[in-house]
Specification:
Blueprint (H helix, E strand, L loop, with lengths): L1 E7 L3 H12 L4 E5 L14 E2 L13 H9 L5 E3 L4 H14 L2 H15 L2 H11 L6 E2 L3 E5 L2 H17 L4 E4 L1 H7 L9 E5 L3 E3 L2 H14 L3 E4 L6 E3 L2 E6 L2 E10 L6 H4 L9 E12 L9 E3 L4 E6 L2 E5 L2 E3 L9 H13 L2 E4 L5 E7 L6 E4 L6 E5 L5 H17 L17
Parallel strand pairs: 1-2, 1-13, 2-10, 4-18, 6-15, 13-22
Antiparallel strand pairs: 3-9, 5-9, 6-8, 7-8, 11-12, 12-13, 14-17, 14-18, 14-19, 14-20, 15-16, 16-17, 21-22
Helix pairs in contact: 1-8, 1-11, 5-11
């Protein structure tokens, strides 16, 4: 099979790239070793968060760092055996986590995030899956006055400065809207611009289906079979060999397996995370997702039940699962919203692809102009997937880019 573009990776980013290219008449193949949306895009918190311009920072308080190393923080789990390999990334991440560094990242993320909801609606409406979008906003809950003052004094005020709408609420005010949330915390901030995605894996499947209806070929194949073929590339798939003039690397946490073949070494790491579904306890119905800032977990209603999604685990990408954060956070979550029986036989493990500045890598490789990268979206992969797809399609087709891609250039760490 001969195509113009082979998109490697059928998560939210790759599927969105393929859909936008196919809608423009570009002969496209979307290639993954699994069905679309089965890896990182499957198990996230299911939130389009345009207000999330301030990236999560690496802890700078020595006392917090000690607790992280000792494994007493619910937000973080660290594999000490992985520390030597992770140290270069963690050092750069720590340096980028100053307030000035996070403000710079916020300015660079805003052009993508501010267009995120509209980009989702465009693709999901065309895919016939607009019903998956629920404009509920989400709550950030703060258990103590100190946490509220510290967090709101910086992160929330920066986000509000970009014009995103929020409301500070008491537990009683939240309970009037969401009776299932018990008043066991100090304050809540309701961020109104966010949109919940019920079943994010289904949303990716719908976008990939849209790509197929527009003429893209959906193929099973291993990206590691990528090789040069004349002026283009060749990839082996279950349906046969695919030749392409241009290749898009949208493999999320597996992307650097290929980029290093093209001579690009990035300060890259994955932030692993887990989720598990629970029955709503006592018939409690939650309609608005929430994040417990003190607990570092996210709770969202999904078709399968209430999805508890953990914070960050620093470990080697392919290390065996260690879902201790589920055990740490489940009691905290049950204090807020009654949780019943676990509905999954074991926690699901995902891997968030991250760069130290918390910005994605989007753009052509200088050393190989017909290689376009689109990965590294950290905790906001679902949010930025469709708008990244449009930007990549602009880059490939030579259209005026929807946003300036300069902040996301692949060689910015050289």
């Amino acid at each position: 099979m001969r195509v113009d573009v082979a998109v490697l990776g059928a998560g939210i980013v790759g599927s969105s790239v393929a859909a936008h290219l196919a809608m423009r008449g570009v002969r496209t193949a979307l290639i993954d070793r699994r069905e679309p949306g089965r890896e990182t895009s499957f198990g996230n918190a299911g939130l389009i968060e345009p207000s999330g311009v301030v990236p999560l920072g690496f802890p700078r308080d020595p006392a917090v760092l000690v607790k992280a190393v000792l494994g007493t923080l619910p937000q973080v789990n660290l594999h000490l055996s992985a520390l030597p390999a992770l140290a270069p990334f963690l050092w750069r991440y720590w340096r980028q986590s100053s307030q000035a560094g996070r403000r710079r990242s916020a300015a660079a993320l805003f052009p993508l995030l501010s267009r995120a909801v509209a980009a989702h609606r465009e693709l999901l409406d065309k895919a016939g899956a607009g019903h998956l979008l629920h404009p509920t906003g989400f709550y950030r809950l703060y258990r103590s006055p100190r946490t509220f003052e510290h967090h709101f004094a910086f992160e929330s005020q920066v986000e509000a400065s970009y014009g995103f709408s929020y409301q500070i609420m008491s537990p009683d005010e939240v309970a009037a809207r969401e009776p299932a949330i018990r008043p066991v915390y100090h304050k809540a901030v309701w961020w109104k611009d966010s949109v919940a995605v019920r079943s994010p894996g289904e949303a990716v499947t719908a976008i990939a289906g849209l790509a197929a209806r527009q003429g893209a070929a959906l193929l099973r194949g291993d990206a590691r079979t990528l090789s040069r073929s004349g002026g283009g590339f060749r990839v082996e798939t279950a349906e046969g060999e695919v030749e392409a003039d241009t290749v898009v690397v949208a493999l999320g946490p597996w992307s650097t397996d290929l980029t290093e073949q093209f001579g690009l070494r990035l300060p890259f790491a994955v932030k692993r995370g887990y989720h598990m579904h629970f029955e709503p306890g006592g018939g409690a119905m939650l309609t608005t997702p929430l994040v417990d800032i003190d607990g570092g977990y996210f709770l969202a209603p999904m078709p399968r039940g209430l999805r508890l999604t953990t914070g960050v685990e620093f470990a080697r990408r392919d290390a065996p699962p260690t879902p201790v954060q589920i055990a740490r956070t489940r009691p905290m979550a049950s204090e807020l919203v009654p949780l019943g029986a676990a509905l999954d036989p074991e926690p699901w493990l995902g891997r968030r692809p991250c760069l130290p500045d918390s910005l994605p890598v989007i753009g052509r490789l200088k050393r190989a102009e017909n290689v376009v990268l689109a990965f590294g979206h950290q905790h906001l992969g679902l949010t930025m997937g469709p708008i990244t797809g449009r930007l990549v399609a602009d880059i490939i087709t030579g259209a005026a880019p929807v946003v300036d891609p300069e902040p996301y250039r692949p060689e910015r760490f050289a």
